[in-house]
Structures are given as structure tokens and as C-alpha cells.
From TrEMBL, chains A, B:
<dbReference type="InterPro" id="IPR015422">
    <property type="entry name" value="PyrdxlP-dep_Trfase_small"/>
</dbReference>
<keyword id="KW-0663">Pyridoxal phosphate</keyword>
<dbReference type="InterPro" id="IPR015424">
    <property type="entry name" value="PyrdxlP-dep_Trfase"/>
</dbReference>
<dbReference type="GO" id="GO:0008483">
    <property type="term" value="F:transaminase activity"/>
</dbReference>
<dbReference type="InterPro" id="IPR006948">
    <property type="entry name" value="Alliinase_C"/>
</dbReference>
<dbReference type="InterPro" id="IPR015421">
    <property type="entry name" value="PyrdxlP-dep_Trfase_major"/>
</dbReference>
<feature type="domain" description="Alliinase C-terminal">
    <location>
        <begin position="64"/>
        <end position="419"/>
    </location>
</feature>
<dbReference type="Pfam" id="PF04864">
    <property type="entry name" value="Alliinase_C"/>
</dbReference>
<dbReference type="InterPro" id="IPR050478">
    <property type="entry name" value="Ethylene_sulfur-biosynth"/>
</dbReference>
<dbReference type="InterPro" id="IPR037029">
    <property type="entry name" value="Alliinase_N_sf"/>
</dbReference>
<protein>
    <recommendedName>
        <fullName>Alliinase C-terminal domain-containing protein</fullName>
    </recommendedName>
</protein>
<comment type="similarity">
    <text>Belongs to the alliinase family.</text>
</comment>
<feature type="region of interest" description="Disordered">
    <location>
        <begin position="22"/>
        <end position="51"/>
    </location>
</feature>
<dbReference type="GO" id="GO:0006520">
    <property type="term" value="P:amino acid metabolic process"/>
</dbReference>
<dbReference type="GO" id="GO:0016846">
    <property type="term" value="F:carbon-sulfur lyase activity"/>
</dbReference>
Length: 420, 420
């Protein structure tokens, strides 16, 4: 869930080399449009945004939370994560009719549990695993499951600011009578609510706990970033509802697979019902691909099983994140115009060493007195960010993705360092 | 959209060979549970419901609209529809940043247009193609796109009875303030509405046109069954919004891919926005699989391109449907207790011959004076159906799937023929 990169209404593309009229929706989505590859002429699977060809590329950078940083890792692993699907396979709606989540592939369930046991970041024994079309769908499913169907008023949905900008958008876009966005959890008054707890938090990387507690209140823990590449694994989380996604754990955003770990069977049943009504289940192809990919990650650390390999995703990811955060802190220091959250660290039970928190997003503050709109200021220098006011925070702050490909990240860093 | 097989609250499984407590959700989904294959022990992709082993199998039949009939075809085609996905492929959220539907794989767009040109069932020139997680998601997207965001009251959603039972359920489950189910189109009074036109109609196979017409009203045409295996292709449909799905065209229900053909760019943009907010796009893996499968279907008829093969999906499908309808009409006649819609036919521009309408569902009426609840009566004889009252119709009617595997269909026929 903590992944939605697209509600980027403030993103404007500046493309003097590619004139022509750019429509509003192209402006919104085209972080870096790819001239000439649109439409029916294509003969190959898509590649997302194009690579930057040199340091003088005038296209904008910094856009979206697209986790393409991980592509380099998966190119190295060869066919360990390759999936072959025969034409006749998994044609049925049904995957596992004895499971609460009847449309979930047993292989996916199995590899989700295995990876959590390998990493130690979440409890799985006694939990139902549910699969969703990305964790965004399971976020909506949780709101549906936790809102009393017979209530007079919609249930209030809250989260501590700065909160992920998609929470209010996804909660309210259908104007549901079941649930309604109610803003910052810290200013909420009442007994009945759903509190969204994102930890590490999108946008600022903070480690969080629920701030509200009442008998009638419920919490949904969005743990999309609770993986060793981003943060020390300090405890095995065991909340009632925990959301995860391959987008941020392995980088496979295009696969649109998320999962929930749910304690209560009735909540699991109602969440499943949501997915049934919304999309009649979840792509089997992507479930099988996710199972393959998650399995390849676990294999990398399977010392006991003899399968441990030199392809270790979390080692790759942590190395990259440490390096990128070092570059970013140096660039901010060179500029002098920006500040970043202080670095924190903790004992990582997975890596068995002290590790820093290296968030997937940078929560950057512009310290210049003459700049009140940091996103606008950066946009003027071809750095695309999401403004703090989208997260219920001060527009002197912006969120910047740390997960882009190397070429784009390097250009972002050099542009930032040059700003005074 | 006309595919949702799972809102089957009336389906009860009778399993004296498999005692143990069956929970309500298992009862609902377990049309034919598969003992011993549930959970994490599985080592292979799922196969849906298990095959029947002999004619004396005591499990129930007739359940759901699962299109597993088509598996036999795809097993015959060999690797023509096999998909290989390397671990590093399509990891980005983005597929085609210049397209309104920025998350759609260009290969999918291309093969959708090619198949419609091959079959002649729908116009594609001047249309936007949009991809969805099944056509159910695009059905919701259409309601979202066509409902004015600033209206005081939810827009009324209507369809002529008998209407697909999922229309009211999917329209109302989130209690949206944007749209609300308003029942049978024939009794609707007002100017502002969204009319759902399913043709051939689920459940009764009727060829339909919109019954309402006003300047402020909108229509959504659900053409899930407008393919040569089910009905003669009498014209190239060119409505404002047309919905299709691989579930019913090729039988790949588990792939969860539907598409919309949309004339108006702003409607296409808003439908895309719905999918963005709901699931941040659609599985690339399944889009690529659908492109492969649709391409294999077109290849079968590509005489000009020299690629025409002996594997022709619509020939297979029509042969099966003709045979199954013959068997069903004979069984109903043998029984004497049931009647079926009269057979209709027309000139099929695709097959270039007169062809009968062979719907994907049988709309069966029980003519026995002592039976008011046909679904309950059949359930007592281990035939699972959906009651007419789910479709806004008389409970003397039931809907029965015509798309199950041969073994299950044969048992259904023999059980039906024996009822007096």
C-alpha cells in the first residue's frame, strides 16, 4: 500500500525536446515519457520509463516510487526467478477451495510464510494469508472488513501525519458510506476508528506504533517497508492485520501482488469477500510469479537447505540503500539548502548486526527562507517530488523516491548538490 | 463482468464422504472441495475444482460459471500460448506512459484490436482500449466514470430483468455515494441513470438493446458473451463503452483480465483513474499472458498471414456448445419437468453461415406445479444452480453453467434427465 506513486498531480514534465501538446493525464503520469514507443507498434513487453543516456539529459528526475532499482539484481539471478506458464494452466477462478482465501495459489501462501520465517519480520503461525492485487486492494479490503455494515455513520479512518498521501485518496474516492477519511490520528476524538500505521513510515521513514487505543478502534499495520534493505528487523511483528507487497520487498511493482497476514478468521473472510466483489480474485499468473520470486529470495539465504546462493536480495538492497543515503546526505551538505531526518539505527535480528534505517523515500526539507513551496522550487530545477501538503504536512517538505534506477538517481543527486 | 460465479449464497455442498464441519464460507465457495490439496503442502500450480472420477460420484455439479470447458482446447495447442517471464521483466508500475491507460502493455492493446478485427464483433478504430483486473473492475470503473462527482444523489444503476446477479451486489457493496442500484430498467422513472446492457444476456442468453433513452442517461454494454462460440456475430458493435473478458472469450478466468473499448477520452481517463486508485494498474504478467492467448486465437484464423492453424478456438467452442445444448434439450425433453428458452439463430458474419444462439448459461424453468423453488429442488438432487430471484426473476427459474469440464457436464445432464 505504501507504494502508490501515481497521485502525482503536482508533477509536471518539462520536455523542450519533445514538443507537441501534452494532455493533463500525460502530464500527470509521464514522469519521463518514452517518445515513439506508445501504442500498437510495440513488439515486446514494456520496460517502464526509459533510461537516462547521459548526465546532461534534460528530462526531470525524482518521480514516483517505482522500485526499478531492483531490476539490476534480478538480471543477475538468471533463470532462478523465471516463470513458464503453459496455455492451459490455472484457467479456473478457483485455486484452493478449502482456504478462506479461495482464489489464492497454495504455492504463493507457502512462499509468503517461508520468507517471513527466513527474515523474521512478521509472525505467520496462526495467521491467515490473503492475496490481493497489490496491497492497495487489501488496504481497501481491510477498511471494508473493519467497518460495521450496520453503522449509521461511516467509520473514521485516521493516520498520524505525515501520512501516506494515498490513504485519504483511496479511502474517499468512491464516497463510501462504510468508511471516511478523518485526517491526523493525533487530533482524532472518538472511540470508533480505523488507524493506519505505516512502519517504516511513508513518507518519512519513521518507525511507528499506533497512537490511538480504544476497545472499539482497530488498527491496520502497513509494513510494506519492513524489510532488511530499508530498516533493521528489530522484532517479529504480530499485529492483527499486516500488509505487505512485492513492489517494495522484491521490486516487482508491475506484478501487482500484495498480501495480508490476518489473525481473525471473520476479518479474513470479509476481506476475501471484498476482493471477490471487486475483482473476483487475483491474477494466478502473478501469484505464481510472486511465489517464484519470493522463493528465489528465500533460496538465497537457505543455508540449512544447502540452497544459499551468491544472489542475496537483501544484501544487494541494503548495499544500494546505504550507498544512496550516503550520496544524498553528502549532496544535501554540499548544497546547504536542505535538511534530512537524522539517521537512526538498531540491532537487526536478520543481519545479526547493527544497521541503519535507510528509508525508501527521502523526506527532504528546504531550509531556504525564500522557499515556501519546496516541490515547486525543485520542479523548477527538474527534480520532481511530492509536496509535503499531500501528506498532511508542511509544503517546505517533499518526498523523493530513493528506488529509481542508478542513472536517474545519479542525476537527481548531482542536481540537488548544485542547488544553493 | 458477466462472469461472477461466486455470489452463490444458495450453494450448499453435500459431502457425506467428507464429514467434518464445513464453515459458511467453505459452503459458499466449495462447489466441489478438493480434500487434501489445501494449504502450504502444494508443490504445483492449482487446477481449480477436481475432475469427477465416475458417473456415480456423489459430489454436486452445475456450480458456477467457471469456464474450464476450454482447458481441453489449450492443452491441444501446445506451446503456442505458453508464456515465459524472466525474473527482471516488467517490474515497473508503468507500461506505456503516452497512453491514457498508462499501465497497459502495448502488446495487449495490439492483440485486443487484432482479435476484434479478426472476429468483427466490435469496432476498435477510434476507441481507447483499457485493461482491467477482469471486466468486473472495469464495470466498477465505468460506474465511477459515468457518475457526476458533484451530484447530490447517487446515480441510479439499472438493467432489464433478468439481470446478472452481480450487478446489484457489485454496485452496492461499498455503499457508494456516487452510484446506487435501482433495479429493473423497465420500471425505472427518471432522466439520469446508467443502464447496463448485457448481450447475449447473463443469465438467459437473450440478445439485448438498451431500453432507456434520455440525454442524461448513459449505457454500458457488457459484451462478455458476444463471441462466435456463443452466438452469431450479426454486427460490429460500436457502443460508447463495451466490456469484454478473457474469462469467457478464451476461458482464462484465473488470469483476471478484462478490457473496455471506450469512445470518449475523458471517460477513458476517469475509468483509468479508478483502476489507479483501486489497484494501481493491472498485473503485467497476466496482460502479457492474455496478449499471448488472444494472439494464438487470431493466429488460428490468420489465413492471409499464412499462420492459420488447425487449432481454432471458436470452432472448438461452437462445436462444444452445439453439442451441449443438444444434450441439454434432450435431457429436458426426457425429464419433462423443465423448459428452456426457444432456440434462436442468425447469420454469423464471422463463420459466414447461419448459426444458433448457444448461451454460456442455461436459463432453466421448472414446470412442476409443486416446485416453487427450482434451485432448492435441484440442490436436493445434487445439481447446484443460482436461483432466478438472484436475477430479479421468478424462483421457478435457475441459471446453470454450460462451461464446466466434460465429466461434470455429463453428470449434470444424466441427473437432470432422470428428474421427473
Amino acid at each position: 500500500v505504501a507504494a502508490l506513486p501515481l497521485l502525482l498531480h503536482q508533477y509536471i514534465v518539462n520536455q523542450p525536446h519533445h514538443p507537441g501538446v501534452v494532455s493533463p493525464d500525460q502530464q500527470r503520469h509521464a514522469c519521463a515519457p518514452q517518445p515513439g514507443t506508445s501504442g500498437a507498434a510495440a513488439r515486446a513487453p514494456s520496460t517502464g520509463k526509459p533510461s537516462f543516456t547521459n548526465a546532461f539529459d534534460i528530462r526531470s528526475v525524482g518521480c514516483s516510487g517505482d522500485p526499478t532499482m531492483f531490476e539490476a539484481f534480478w538480471r543477475e539471478t538468471g533463470d532462478a526467478a523465471e516463470l513458464v506458464i503453459p496455455g492451459w494452466q490455472t484457467m479456473s477462478y478457483f485455486s484452493d477451495v478449502g482456504n478462506v482465501c479461495w482464489f489464492m495459489e497454495p504455492l504463493f501462501d507457502q512462499q509468503v510464510r517461508r520468507l517471513h520465517r527466513t527474515v523474521g519480520n512478521a509472525a505467520v503461525d496462526g495467521y491467515h494469508v490473503l492475496v490481493g492485487t497489490g496491497s492497495t486492494q487489501l488496504f481497501m479490503a481491510a477498511l471494508y472488513a473493519l467497518s460495521p455494515a450496520d453503522a449509521d455513520q461511516p467509520t473514521s479512518v485516521v493516520s498520524t501525519a505525515p501520512y501516506y498521501s494515498s490513504y485519504p485518496a483511496v479511502t474517499d474516492f468512491l464516497r463510501s458510506g462504510l468508511f471516511r477519511w478523518a485526517g491526523d490520528a493525533n487530533s482524532f476524538v472518538g472511540d470508533s476508528y480505523i488507524e493506519l500505521v505505516c512502519s517504516p513510515n511513508n513518507p518519512d521513514g519513521a518507525i511507528r506504533d499506533a497512537v490511538l487505543s480504544s476497545g472499539a478502534g482497530k488498527a491496520v499495520h502497513d509494513l510494506a517497508y519492513y524489510w532488511p534493505q530499508y530498516t533493521p528487523i528489530t522484532r517479529r511483528a504480530d499485529h492483527d492485520i499486516m500488509l505487505f507487497t512485492v513492489s517494495k520487498s522484491t521490486g516487482h511493482a508491475g506484478t501487482r501482488i500484495g498480501w495480508a497476514l490476518v489473525k481473525d478468521r471473520e476479518v479474513a473472510r470479509r476481506m476475501t469477500k471484498f476482493v471477490e466483489l471487486n475483482t473476483i480474485g487475483v491474477s494466478k499468473d502473478s501469484q505464481l510469479r510472486a511465489a517464484k520470486v519470493l522463493g528465489a529470495v528465500s533460496d538465497g539465504y537457505d543455508v540449512g537447505g544447502g540452497g544459499a546462493s551468491r544472489h542475496r536480495l537483501f544484501d544487494f538492497g541494503r548495499r544500494k540503500m546505504v550507498e544512496r543515503w550516503r550520496m544524498l546526505r553528502e549532496a544535501a551538505a554540499a548544497s546547504g539548502a536542505f535538511s534530512l531526518p537524522a539517521e537512526t539505527s538498531g540491532q537487526c535480528n536478520f543481519a545479526n548486526e547493527t544497521a541503519a534505517n535507510n528509508p525508501a523515500f527521502a523526506w527532504l526539507r528546504c531550509d531556504r527562507e525564500d522557499v515556501e513551496d519546496c516541490a515547486g522550487f525543485l520542479r523548477g530545477h527538474k527534480i520532481l517530488t511530492r509536496s509535503g501538503n499531500q501528506f498532511g504536512a508542511d509544503p517546505r517538505y517533499v518526498r523523493v523516491s530513493m528506488l529509481d534506477r542508478d542513472d536517474a538517481y545519479d542525476i537527481f543527486i548531482s542536481r540537488l548538490a548544485s542547488l544553493k
